[in-house]
Amino acid sequence: MKRSILILGAFWMMLLAGCTVGPKYARPNVPTAPVDAFKETNGWKPAQPSDQLLRGNWWEFFGDPQLNALESDLTVSNQDLKVANARFLEARAIVHFNRAAQFPTISTSPGIESLRYSSNTPLLPANNFTDLVLPFDLSYELDVWGRVRRTVSASREEAQAIAGDLATVNLSLHAELAYDYFELRSADAQKQLLDDTVKTYQVALQLTVDRFEGGAAPKSDVAQARTQLQTTMVQDTDIAVQRAQFEHAIAVLIGKPPAAFSLSASPLNLAPPDISPGLPSQLLERRPDIAAAERRVAEANDQIGIARAAYYPTVILSASAGFEGDSITNWFTWPSRFWAAGPSMLETLFDAGRRRATSNAALANYDATVAGYRQSTLTAFQQVEDNLAALRILSHEAQQQKEATASAQESLQIFTNRYIGGRDPYLQVLTAQTIALQNERNDVDILRRRMDASVLLIKALGGGWTVSELPKTTELR
Fold first, then answer.
1. DSSP state of 285
2. Higher local confidence (pLDDT), 17 or 174
3. Half-sphere exposure of 409 (CA within 13 A, CB side)
4. Are 87 and 101 in contact (CB under 8 A)?
5. What is the distance of C-alpha 360 from the center of its chain?
6. Distance separating alpha carbons of residues 202 and 181, to the nearest angstrom
């Protein structure tokens, strides 16, 4: 008995002194901006104070109650978001599953058998007897080389990565809704502009008809005015196609069938909000997709350790104890006890290179995840710079377009007056009408692009998310 205790104690010492094979994890270096500012912030006027970060429901920055209500509906009803949340819960369950390997497995298989040996069995008398057994079996892998610890760690890091994926899906869906909403409202604005233009052109057509009937204008002026009106009516009708598609997209995003959802018309009349991009170095902490990529690098590092642990022997501690008797009266008596305990070791002597291939695959996977992490960072910087540039340039373009629209309206008024006075042909009015309408539509389109770029910039900045929102290791136990 004392000898058995010494043997078991020696193996427990092996467990306590066991090492974790494989490389220690260090976050890979990533390309960063050489200065403490984004390139495209030159000439950009961000929100004040300059260190303000997006927080909470970022869509409320736009000040549109209808958008706020739709975003809230998306949060509770979007099916893709529910899928992502279920995937995270699945990842947490896998952590618990792998963590169970850190504890012994105890099982029992009680049984009652009535036996009779053959009368012709050598060396045994022919008799009947009953065997009552209540065994308890224990099996425990001594994690000498850290395989189990690495497996648990890898599953936790994957769960954190999937939490980052969930945040990315959440951000992307809310941004997509805001994007579609501003596209729809822009279509409403284009519709309103074309409705008003159709009315103006109807007045112009009536003017040419009156002048033709009075003998002051040729019939060609009437034909030209009617063509201009009908062409604009076609453009007005065509807007409905685009608007319907965005309305249907919004319905699906908030978890409703398109037939059960509609938005009343309301032309886009918002101004893009001031957005602080922060510092380039902060972007690594504010993008959930970057955080997820970094966690998968850590997971890949653990997979290397798991692969290397396969080169070392597996040590299993097994024990069995219980009671066995031949009747109910003596089944649970002290003399009916039995037990057995001891360690065993399993080592693969030859596997035709399987472990080496697994180890090489783990190393290659690590290199791939590092490259993916770095690429995610580069893509994030590009997206921020792209949308900063778009907002800066479009802001300047909007002012230019405003001046161009005013000039076009003035030109249209001049040519209309000259036509009424009989000094210019109607062709001059048609040209001025076309130019004026195009400039007015450009006004609406530039505002649409500025609102879209604002949404995409917020998305590129992480929407106020920070890496501190990833579940901690202690929360994944």
1. H
2. 174
3. 11
4. no
5. 30
6. 31
Helix (H), strand (E) at residue 324? strand 314-325
Q: Give the CATH number for residue 129.
A: 2.20.200.10
Domain count, the chain: 2
Tokens of 199: 């009315």
**Tokens 């009803």 — which residue?**
77
Q: Report residue 364 CA to chain centroid gap.
A: 25
Give the integer Cα–Cα distance in Å for 287 and 376.
Answer: 10
Q: Which residues contact 316 (CB under 8 A, 6 or more apart)?
A: 139, 140, 141, 142, 343, 344, 345, 346
The pLDDT of residue 45 is: 54
Give residue 454's identity as a one-letter amino acid code. Answer: S
C-alpha closest to that of 159 among 404, 471, 400? 471
Q: Looking at the structure, do residues 37 and 113 belong to the same domain, yes or no?
A: no
pTM given for the model: 0.87
* CA atoms of 426 and 108, how far apart (whole Å): 99
- Is 247:184 a contact under the CB 8 Å cutoff? yes
- Going by C-alpha positions, the residue among 466, 392, 458, 465 that lies closest to residue 182 is 458
3-state secondary structure of 193: helix
Q: What angle do CA 137, 142, 148 make, to 5 degrees?
A: 110
Domain-embedded: residue 238: yes
Distance of alpha carbon 85 from alpha carbon 166, whole angstroms: 6
Q: Cα–Cα distance between 21 and 140 in angstroms, integer?
A: 20
Domain around 152 = 20-103+144-312+353-476
Q: Which amino acid is at 2?
A: K
C-alpha dist (Å) from residue 379 to 93, 168, 287, 368, 395: 32, 14, 11, 16, 24
Q: Flag the least confident range among 16-25, 145-154, 206-215, 392-401.
A: 16-25
Q: How confident is the model at residue 136 (pLDDT cuts 50, 70, 90)?
A: very high
Name the packing angle between helices 219-253 and 65-77 (round to 10°).
Answer: 40
Could you tell me if 134 and 331 are in contact, meaning their C-beta atoms sit under 8 angstroms apart? yes
* DSSP classification of residue 423: S
- pLDDT tens column, 278-287: 778 888 889 9
